[in-house]
């Protein structure tokens, strides 16, 4: 009996499948548009939901290329095609708007007591060299970096695909290659000005009194006030962040995987656009925002009255040093070099 | 502003050094992610698939495989001019 059942069972299963198929066929035929043109996409989506990624097999050594789709890749694409645009536009254009409004309402911060005609050395030649090397590289990298994010939406329609391709190619090389002198500059800035940028109690008082920018107060400060210290730490920490994340992107998969690369790109993009926004404010206060400020990096010297108004404690330190060589009895228009 | 100009020169000098450093360390895509059996020729351009290409003047040009690759100094000085005798397809596609 058991032997007979074993022999009959496959036949019964086959018959059951046949009956089931015959019954199901008319039902399927009754569905409108039984040939779904999007069937492949539906299967892909189902596959993605079930396995969390779509991958296959390959013969080339790069096993990463076997993965065709993965959820994090979609989130990353959403970031750099949507979110980064918003973050960058709000940060950069928002800062520009704030600076324009501020300039129109406050105007240039002038030397209240006028120029004294005596200059004091503010930054030596090496400090200015490091500053300008870092700044020049930063400006070029900022423009080329913004081109990567915004160029295809803003510049491409204006100059056309051919010119945009050449510009983007050159910009990409400049971006990568100038990262090396930029990184060196940030490192030298860190070492060079660390001593003067450690926060102290004077900074709290400076911040409480609005730093002389908001209002017309002139709170005391050493060589670097709280605002400049903020810029210093943003440059050092932000510069380190964009440098590390940038080198990860420049050396793809050198000890990193796809997720690491995506994270590096997110960090690089966000920190970079915020960095650009902060540097816009730095450039503003160093040029049209404050009378006599640009001379510090332009010539290396500042007017003594400017120094007394904005860095009174530093001027006192210089006097106590009893170094008459640092006080130059020259007209302020005389270059230090 | 002497410090500024010296800084610019230094930045360019370091960038040139960085170019040669990167050239020594990094591999072209065709080498890094392919095998001997399926190598991607980095000088290959899509126009080579067609064999000929239409230049700006409307004339058909030669195959793109004849294109010269840009030299190191051309990248450094961003000199992408069309070479003498080089096909229009090369100039437009590299």
Describe it:
The complex is a heterodimer of chains A (337) and B (94). Chain A has a single domain, classed as Fumarate Reductase Cytochrome B subunit (Up-down Bundle). Chain A has eleven helices and five strands; from the N terminus they run ααββαβααααααβααβ. In chain A, strands 4-3-5 form a three-stranded antiparallel beta sheet. In chain A, strands 1-2 form a two-stranded antiparallel sheet. By secondary structure, chain B is mostly helical. Chain B has two domains: 41 residues, no CATH class; 52 residues, no CATH class. Chain B contains five helices and two strands. Chain B has a two-stranded antiparallel sheet with strand order 1-2. The longest helix of chain B is centred in the first third of the chain and has 24 residues. Classes of the chains: A mainly alpha (337), B mainly alpha (94). Chains A and B meet through α4 and α5 of A and α1 of B.
């Amino acid at each position: 009996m058991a032997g007979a059942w074993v022999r009959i069972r496959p036949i019964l299963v086959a018959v059951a499948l046949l009956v089931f198929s015959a019954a199901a066929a008319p039902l399927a035929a009754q569905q409108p548009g039984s040939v779904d043109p999007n069937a492949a996409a539906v299967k892909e989506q189902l596959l993605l939901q079930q396995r969390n990624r779509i991958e296959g097999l390959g013969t080339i050594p790069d096993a990463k290329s076997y993965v065709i789709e993965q959820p994090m890749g979609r989130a990353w694409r959403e970031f750099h095609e949507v979110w980064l645009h918003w973050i960058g536009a709000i940060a950069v254009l928002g800062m520009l708007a704030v600076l324009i409004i501020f300039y129109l309402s406050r105007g240039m911060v002038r030397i209240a007591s006028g120029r004294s005609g005596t200059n004091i050395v503010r930054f030596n030649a090496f400090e200015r060299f490091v500053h300008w090397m870092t700044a020049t590289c930063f400006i070029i990298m900022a423009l080329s970096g913004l081109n990567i994010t915004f160029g295809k939406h803003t510049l491409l329609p204006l100059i056309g695909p051919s010119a945009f391709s050449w510009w983007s190619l050159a910009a990409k090389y400049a971006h990568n290659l100038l990262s090396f002198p930029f990184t060196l500059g940030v490192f030298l800035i860190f070492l060079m000005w660390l001593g003067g940028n450690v926060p102290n109690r004077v900074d709290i008082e400076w911040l409480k009194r609005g730093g002389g920018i908001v209002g017309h107060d002139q709170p005391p400060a050493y060589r670097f006030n709280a605002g400049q210290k903020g810029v210093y730490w943003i440059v050092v920490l932000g510069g380190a962040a964009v440098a590390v994340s940038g080198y990860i992107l420049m050396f793809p998969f050198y000890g990193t995987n796809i997720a690491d690369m995506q994270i590096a790109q997110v960090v690089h993009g966000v920190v970079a656009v915020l960095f650009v926004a902060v540097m816009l404010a730095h450039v503003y206060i160093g040029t049209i925002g404050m009378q006599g400020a640009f001379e510090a990096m332009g010539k290396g010297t500042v007017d003594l009255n400017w120094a007394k108004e904005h860095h009174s404690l530093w001027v006192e330190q210089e006097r106590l040093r009893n170094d008459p060589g640092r006080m130059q009895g020259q007209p302020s228009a005389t270059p230090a070099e | 502003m002497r410090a500024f100009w010296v800084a610019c020169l230094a930045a360019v000098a370091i960038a040139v050094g960085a170019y040669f450093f990167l050239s020594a360390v990094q591999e072209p895509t065709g080498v890094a992610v392919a095998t001997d059996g399926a190598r991607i020729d980095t000088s290959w351009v899509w126009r080579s698939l067609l064999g000929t290409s239409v230049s700006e003047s409307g004339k058909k040009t030669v195959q793109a495989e004849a294109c010269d690759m840009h030299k190191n100094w051309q990248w450094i000085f961003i000199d992408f001019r069309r070479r003498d005798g080089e096909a229009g397809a090369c100039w437009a596609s590299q």
